[in-house]
Structures are given as C-alpha cells and as structure tokens.
From TrEMBL:
Residues 51-79 form the C3H1-type domain. Gene3D superfamilies: 3.30.1370.210, Classic Zinc Finger. The lineage of its organism: Eukaryota, Metazoa, Chordata, Craniata, Vertebrata. It comes from Zosterops borbonicus. GO terms for cellular component: U12-type spliceosomal complex. One of its GO terms (molecular function) is zinc ion binding. Its main location: nucleus. It is found in: Nucleus. This is Zinc finger matrin-type protein 5.
Length: 148
C-alpha cells in the first residue's frame, strides 16, 4: 500500500506521493483548517484590531448563523463581545506596564502555584502539630527526591 501522509490540520491521511501531497497542501480545505489552527493562538489585541476594521455580518446578526462561518469577511462579534475583548486587551496592557515598571507581580505559572500551595500546607501542618514539620513518607520516597 505504501507510505501514508497524515495532515494534523485536516485530521486525515492519504497515500504519500508528490502529486497527492501537493494537491492536498494547496487545497482550500487544508488552507482553511491551517488558518483556523493558527487563529487559535493569536493574541487578543490582534483579534480586536481585525474585528474593529470589519463591518458586522447582517445574516449572522439576524439569524445567528452564517453560511461562510470563519471564512466570512464580515464580523460575527456583537458590541458586548467587542467590549469584553477591548477590556481584556486593556488589562493585558496594564499588566505589561506594571511588569516593566518593576512591580512585584507573580507570573502565574503552575510552579508558582505549587510552591505557594506547599508553603500553605506546611504552615497549616505546623500549626496542627505544634511547630514540627514532618513530610509524609509517600512524599519523601515516591517522587524522586532523595533527601529534603
């Protein structure tokens, strides 16, 4: 049967040869799926800027549906959606400005949350045990830490 090519954007596979791959990669379905995929990772400011330049889609506003979907050249966002997006962009700008000024704002990563949680648990446990901190045996031996 030969090698098969799997397209992650379109979630389909086909026989891999030059003609088939070229035909697929230049096809409308693939280009639309690729655009939708990359649109998921755009920042709010870029989305807001693009949506503000578009006129509202009459059919989407009247019926709630549009035959063109994500390929429509008109905006499918309501005024409330645009206001929420604008508020989100302003919040992100303020946060960046505060971080540039040197304000002590935690980045909000999972590691930071885990550290804070561990500190909270250790203080709560020390309050219950009268000051001595004792880690459970599963914590000492089950996570790869040789000594604490």
């Amino acid at each position: 049967m030969g090698k098969r090519y799997f397209c992650d954007y379109c979630d389909r596979s086909f026989q891999d040869n030059l003609h088939n791959r070229k035909k697929h990669l230049n096809g409308v379905q693939h280009l639309r799926a690729k655009r939708v995929w990359y649109d998921l990772f755009r920042d709010a400011a870029a989305i807001l800027q693009e949506e503000q330049t578009k006129k509202p889609c009459r059919k989407f506003l009247q019926t709630g549906q549009c035959d063109f979907g994500s390929n429509c050249r008109f905006s499918h966002m309501t005024e409330q959606d645009l206001e929420k997006l604008s508020a989100q962009v302003q919040g992100e700008k303020r946060l960046k400005e505060l971080q540039r000024e040197g304000a002590d704002i935690p980045p909000g990563t999972i590691e930071d949350w885990l550290d804070k949680r561990a500190q909270r648990l250790s203080t709560a446990q020390s309050n219950r045990t009268g000051g001595s901190i004792r880690a459970p045996s599963w914590f000492l031996f089950g996570n790869g830490f040789e000594s604490l």
